[in-house]
What does this fold into?
Amino acid sequence: MKYLFLISAIILTAFAGTYAPNENITNYLEADIDYLVNFYKKRHQNPEISLMEKETAKDLANELRKAGYEVTENFGGYGIVGILKNGKGPTILYRTDMDALPMAEKTELEYASSTMIEYSGVKVGTMHSCGHDVHMTTLLGTARAMAEMKDQWKGTLMLIGQPAEEIGAGARMMLEEGLYEKFGVPDYGVGLHSSPTIAAGQVGFGKGYTMANTESIDIQVYGYGSHGASPHMSIDPVVIASMIVMDLQTIVSRNLKPTESAVVTVGAIQGGVKHNIIPDEVILKLTVRTYTEEVRTMVHKRIREISKGVAIAAGLPEDRLPEVTIPEDFTPANYNNPELVDRLTASAGKAIGADNVIYAEPQMVGEDFSRYGKTEHNVPTVLYWLGTVPDERMKSGDLPGLHSPFYYPDPQKSVETGVKVTSQGLLDLFNQKLMK
It folds into this structure.
């Protein structure tokens, strides 16, 4: 399948013109890669978690200014916007996220993070275990390359340094502060994400839905407590909650069409304090992943129906039925515009060779990059996967996932690939006719 996907993209000569790699990008990288790797290591050693990206944003903003961009700081939290106007042409948004995670690094790299912070009242380590340091470095390298090649494109490049992706808040914060109103509505939006399973030197593209709606849902289960030795005097919320957990599993297996996808996971059950006390309440904490609004709505409906039905069957009155809390705010599913995928896939083939551009299947993870394409303006967007796995790990099969304390990329190879693919893609988009 991946080869059919690739061939269909490579034949789009009407979009990309001649399919020779841009030697200017290669020459630029040869001279600049040490600078970029040093930037990467600095950021890796000094991670800052969501809503605390002050020094990270300042560092990236300073680098963009040095490259010739007009930079606005503290836009939507610690967000930054770098603008390079280069005549009349398309406006293209290219985003990186900047935040790290509150977890200790265990890679034993010589440049590993040892930064500690106070988090929820506890001292914890911090780590770029989701590749945002690679994302920032790739954006910086692309920014410098595009500034060097101003004679080869016309238009406006809008670079976004986004905070708080890990908590699903940063894109919304920047859009609500008036990103498009102040800087203009882009014609395209482009982003990338590090892959823990694709080899460094390769990239992966998927069309349509590639990442899921991501929601956190709470179910407050009530009951009547009693002594653990007298369960007949209770309506046990632990048992009710357990039955709800099991019945929730039928949503995907029996209510969802087999050709659709969803995940309903109960990640936490909280209730009770002692072995011999049946409590009055239990809380269930769910993560729900879907692609389409139709499936999302159905899953919500069934969660409410199952929770209520189990409680009624247990004998609870109306005023003690479970409360299902579904927040209005959630991370929407990422949708890759198919035509834009074709264009960027063709460009990637030029940049790194067709064999290194592979099909990436949809995943149930979430990414708030999706928001840039879900405003009233319906901006076509693509988020692609950047391979980061070092050769030795690909050979051994030791592939720690993202958010693992053992995850690390091959910095040089990953950044080189990201800069080549993104820069070539931007150049081609600037020089092609706008999509209708």
Summary: The longest strand covers residues 188-199. The two ends are 28 Å apart (CA to CA). Residues 1-18 have pLDDT under 50 and may be disordered.
